[in-house]
Amino acid sequence: SAMEETDREAVATAVQRVAGMLQRPDQLDKVEQYRKREARKKASVEARLKAAIQSQLDGVRTGLSQLHNALNDVKDIQQSLIDVNKDWRQSINTIENLKDVKDAVVQHSQLAAAVENLKNIFSVPEIVRETQDLIERGELLQAHRKLMDLECSRDNLMYEQYRMDSKNTHDMNLIHTYFGDMQKLSEELAKQLWMVVQRSLVTVRRDPTLLVSVVRIIEREEKIDRRMLDRKKQTGFIPPGRPKKWKEKMFNILERTVSTRIEGTQADTRESDKMWLVRHLEIIRKYVLDDLLVAKTLLDQCFPPHYDIFNRLLNMYHQALATRMQELAAEDLEANEIVSLLSWVLNTYKSAEMMGNSELCPEVDVNSLDPLISQNVVDQLLSKYMSTLTSNIIGWLRKALETDKKDWIKETEPEADQDGYYQTTLPAIVFQMFEQNLQVAAQINEDLKTKVLLLCLQQMNSFLTRYKDEAQLYKEEHLKNRQYPQCYVQYMIAVINNCQTFKESIISLKRKYLKIDMEDTLSSSHTNMDAILDIIAKEGCSSLLDEVFMDLEPHLNELMTKKWLMGSNAVGTICVTVEDYFNDFARIKKPYKKTMTVEAHRRVVVEYIRAIMLKRISFKNAEERKEGAERMIKEAEQFRFLFKKLAAGSGEDTEGLCDIIEAIAEVIKLTDPSLLYLEVSTLVSKYPDIRDDHIAALLTVRGDASRDMKQTIIETLDQGPSQPNPNYVPIFKEITVPTLTVPKLLK
Questions:
Q1: What kind of architecture, by CATH, is found in domain 379-542?
Q2: Could you tell me if 273 and 279 are in contact, meaning their C-beta atoms sit under 8 angstroms apart?
C-alpha cells in the first residue's frame, strides 16, 4: 500500500543519512550526539505538523458555519420576494389613480414660472415704453438690456407652455400676442443698429463708442441665438424670431453699403462730360483707398478679432469693384474710354495709389487679389479698341490729307522750318496723332503698344499711296492751267520735303516705341514706305523740272536758228530762268536738292544737243561754221558756270556734260574736210551711244559734206574702237532725230 511504500522510502533515506554520518571510525564516538540532534529535529517537525493540521481544521469549521448562515438568508429573501410580489399585484390599480397628481405637479411648475414672471408680465407695457424711449434717445445698450429681459420672460413662459402641452397653439398665441409690441421693439432697435453700421466708416471717426455698443449688442444676440439652438436640439422648442442672425445681417448691410458707395460715384454721363469715366474711376480710387485706410486703422479696433472685419470689407470692396468694372466693360465705350478703363483695372488698381498703398501693407497683398475683369473680357475690350482705333486712324489720316490739300491752293507760300526748308504741317499732325495713341497704349502694356505701332505703320503705308496719288493729281490740275495754283512750285517743294520728314519720323517712332527684337517684322513695310516716299519725292522733283523746261521751251526753240546765229540772247535767258527757279529750289532738302541740280544740268545739255540734232540750220561756209562753233563753246561755258554755282558745296562733278557740247562744236568748227572722219571718230569713241542718224544730222548742220561722204564716214565708223569715260552716262540715246528735213521752213 501507499503507506508501506512511504515507510520503506523513509527507512531507505534514514539508512543513507546514517551511512553518511558514520564514514570514519572516529565518528562512532559521536553516535550519541547525533542521536540527540536527530531526536530534536524530529520533535520540531512533529510540532509543526500538528499546528498545521489544527489550523486546517479550524478553517473548515468556520466555513461550514458560514454556509449554514447563507442558507438561512436565502430562505428569508425568497419569502420576502413572495410577499413583495403579492403586494405589487394588489397595488396596480392604485398607481393608475396617481396621474392627477402628476398633472398637478406640471401645472405647479408652470404656475411657479408664471408667478415668478408675474411682475414682468404685468409690467410688460411699461417696460416696452421705457425701451422705446431709450431707443429714441440712442441709449442702445440699455434699451437692449430691457429688450433681453422682455424676451427672456416671454421665452420662459412659452417654454413652460410647450413642455405642458406642445399641441396647444391657442395658449402659445395668447402669450405671443401679449408680447407683440416687443417684436416691434426688436425691429426698431435693429433699424438703429443698421443705420450705425451703414455709416460705420464715418461713425468710427466721430463716435467709436457708439459702434462698439452696436457690436456688443450683436454679440449678445449671437450668444442667445446659440443658446436657443442648443435648447432646440434637446427639447425641440425655439421661440419665435430666433435665430435672429444679426451678425450675418450686419455683414449683408455692409456689403450693400459698399456696393452703393461705389455705384454712387458716377456723377456725370458722356453727354454731360467727355471725361466722365476718368472722373468716375478717380473718385472710386480715392473713396476705396480712404475707406480701407479708415477700416484698417480705426474700424478694426471696434470689432472682435474673429469678425476679421478688415479682410471681410476688403473682400466686399473687391467684389463690388469687380461688379462695377464688368458693368462698365459691358457699356458701349469709346476707344479712349476703353483705355481709361483697362489702364485703371490692370494698373491703377494694384498700384501704390490704391491697393498697393504702403499703409495698407501687409494686410493687403496685391499679388493675391483676383483680376477685376476676366482675361476674356480684357481681350474683347482690346480687340474692340483696336478696331475702333483702326477706323479712327483711317479717318484722321484722311482728314489730315484733305486739310493739307486745301493749303496747296493757297495764295500764300507754305511755312518754312528753322533751316528755311518749305514744309506743311502734315507730317507733324500725323506723327503727333501716332505718338498720342502710342502713349495711351503704353499705359496698358507693352503688347498693346507694339500692336498700335504696327497698326500706325500699316495705315501709314496706305496713306502714303494716297499722298502719292494726290500729289500726282495736283500736278495734273496745274498743267491744265499753269497760272494756278499761284504757289504751285512752293507747295510741290513742301511735298518733297515732307517725304524726308516722314522718313525721319518713321525711324524715330520705331526707335522710341519698338523693341529691338521686333525690328525684322517691320523691315519690309519700312522699306516699302521708304520706296513710296522716294517715288513721291522723285515725281515731285521731276514735275518741278517740267515747270522749268516749259518756261524754257520758247528759248530752246530759238537755239541753232538763223536768229541765234545772228546773236540772240536765248542762252542768257535760259540761265537766268534756271537760276531763278533754283532760288526756290534752295528750299528743297539736301538729298533731293542735289538730285534736282544734277537732273537740271543734264536736261539743259540734252535739250541743247537736241536743238543741234533738229537740223534747224545748215551752215553755208567756214565763216558761219566758225562763228556757230565759237558761240556753242561760249554757251557751254555759260552753262558750266551756272551749274557750278548751283551745285556749290554739293561736290557734284558735272563738268563732263558741257564737254559734249564743246566736242560737237569742234566737229562743226573743223576747216579741213579731210580730217573730218578723224574728228567724228574721236567723238564717237568718247560717246559710244551716238547713232548713225546723229552723225548724219551733225554733218548736215556742218553743211559741206556730200551724201557719199556721209555714207563713207558712217560706214567706216562702225569698225572703230570706243574708249568712253567710265563716269559717262549715255545722253544721246534719249535724243531723237527728225527723219524729214525741212530746214527751209525753219529759216
A1: Orthogonal Bundle (1.10)
A2: yes
136 vs 579: which has the higher pLDDT: 579
Which grid coordinates are listed for 574?
535760259
Predicted local confidence at residue 651, as pLDDT: 56
Radius of gyration of the chain (CA): 63
**Is there a contact between 593 and 538 (Cβ–Cβ < 8 Å)?**
no
Dihedral sign from CA coordinates of 301, 303, 308, 309: negative
Query: How large is the average pLDDT for residues 612-616?
Result: 92
CATH topology of domain 559-734: Tetracycline Repressor; domain 2 (1.10.357)
Domains 379-542 and 559-734 share a fold: yes
Q: List the domain boundaries for the chain.
A: 35-244, 250-373, 379-542, 559-734
Question: For 537-559, what is the HEC assignment?
Answer: HHHHHHHHHHHHHHHHHHHHHHC
Q: What is the torsional sign of CA 253, 255, 257, 263?
A: negative
Distance separating alpha carbons of residues 186 and 144, to the nearest angstrom: 8
Q: Which residues contact 158 (CB under 8 A, 6 or more apart)?
A: 172, 175, 176, 237, 239
**Dihedral, CA atoms, 65, 67, 72, 78, nearest 10 degrees?**
170
Interval 38-63: pLDDT, tens = 889 889 989 999 999 998 999 988 99
pLDDT at 747: 38
Length, in residues, of the chain: 747
Q: Are 214 and 197 in contact (CB under 8 A)?
A: yes
Predicted TM-score (pTM) above 0.85: no
- Mean pLDDT throughout 285-300? 89
Angle made by CA atoms 215, 216, 217, in degrees to the nearest 5:
90
